TrEMBL record:
It comes from Streptomyces luteosporeus. It catalyses: cytidine(1402) in 16S rRNA + S-adenosyl-L-methionine = 2'-O-methylcytidine(1402) in 16S rRNA + S-adenosyl-L-homocysteine + H(+). Keywords: Cytoplasm, Methyltransferase, rRNA processing, S-adenosyl-L-methionine, Transferase. The keyword Cytoplasm applies. This is Ribosomal RNA small subunit methyltransferase I. Catalyzes the 2'-O-methylation of the ribose of cytidine 1402 (C1402) in 16S rRNA.
Length: 284
């Protein structure tokens, strides 16, 4: 008889947001795997919960090594509770490896739904939320960050990112460069906490604001790309779209074909725009 892996969402700020089931699961778990055992201790104290299970650390640095140990406990019949510092485990937090390993061994996996910075930021952003995609953290290196942004430059769904406060200004500047300074966005800071702030505006304005320095936990919500008809696409825009695809790894021929398909224009029109831009650069 195998045990059960329970992924438990924890408050992203206000401890009063903790779901009632969280306290019950903390008290009943035979093993509690926590991203930070000190934060777990503060959480249980705030909730008035006495834990009797074994508490082990489970964070990025030991995730690979500790996963087999936790899986063996699960296979042996233990109820293992996984909690991270805030939000839902495995969503840009430790947990994915353990879930995948548990599923592979036939162990039941369930969850205690809880607060989510992704959904909370979407809800308060004022941007379309009917379709969205979560992109997690962008790469730290400038070139890799630009490359990742260029991959979704034409994505029409709303985009959600996590970011560290000391990189926020560089990230917003890169977004303004790739998506355009007028693309709407919202920077959600310290959600559900005392100094919660949601700063909304065009990416260009937000980048200038962030340059002064911003503190706290950050979630960025960015409006998706607008769908434009062929009549709105000038040669420069066609060239830009081809360049974005080339920088993402596509060959030029493939990039031209893809841009033609997505815009409804003949491939010859896109090809001529690319050639003209190349000649202009060469002659200039």
């Amino acid at each position: 008889m195998t045990g059960t892996l329970v992924l438990a969402g924890t408050p992203i700020g206000d401890v009063a947001d903790a779901p009632p089931r969280l306290a019950a699961e903390l008290g009943a778990a035979e093993v509690i795997a926590a991203e930070d055992t000190r934060r777990l201790r503060r959480l249980t104290q705030a909730l008035g919960v006495h834990t009797t299970g074994k508490v082990v650390s489970y964070f990025e640095g030991n995730e690979s090594a500790r996963t087999p140990e936790l899986v063996e406990a699960l296979v042996g019949g233990a109820r293992v509770l996984l909690v991270t510092d805030a939000g839902m485990p495995s969503v840009s937090d430790p947990g994915y490896r353990l879930v995948a390993a548990a599923v592979e061994r036939g162990v039941p996996v369930t969850a205690v739904p809880g607060p989510s910075a992704v959904l909370t930021a979407l809800a308060v952003s004022g941007l379309p939320v009917d379709r969205f995609c979560f992109e997690g953290f962008l790469p730290r290196k400038a070139g890799e960050r630009l490359g990742r942004l260029r991959e979704v430059a034409e994505e029409r769904r709303t985009l959600v990112y996590f970011e560290a406060p000391h990189r926020l200004d560089d990230t917003l500047a890169a977004m303004a460069e790739v998506f355009g300074t007028d693309r709407r966005a919202a920077v959600c800071r310290e959600l559900t906490k005392t100094y919660e702030e949601v700063k909304r505006g065009p990416l260009g304005e937000l980048a200038a604001w962030a340059a002064e320095g911003v503190k706290g936990e950050i979630t960025i919500v960015v409006e998706g790309a607008a769908e434009r008809g062929p009549e709105e696409l000038d040669a420069a825009e066609l060239v830009r779209r081809v360049r974005v695809r080339e920088e993402a790894g596509e060959r030029r021929k493939e990039a031209i074909s893809a841009v033609a398909a997505e815009t409804g224009l003949p491939k010859r029109v896109v090809f001529d725009a690319v050639v003209a831009a190349k000649n202009a650069a060469f002659n200039g």
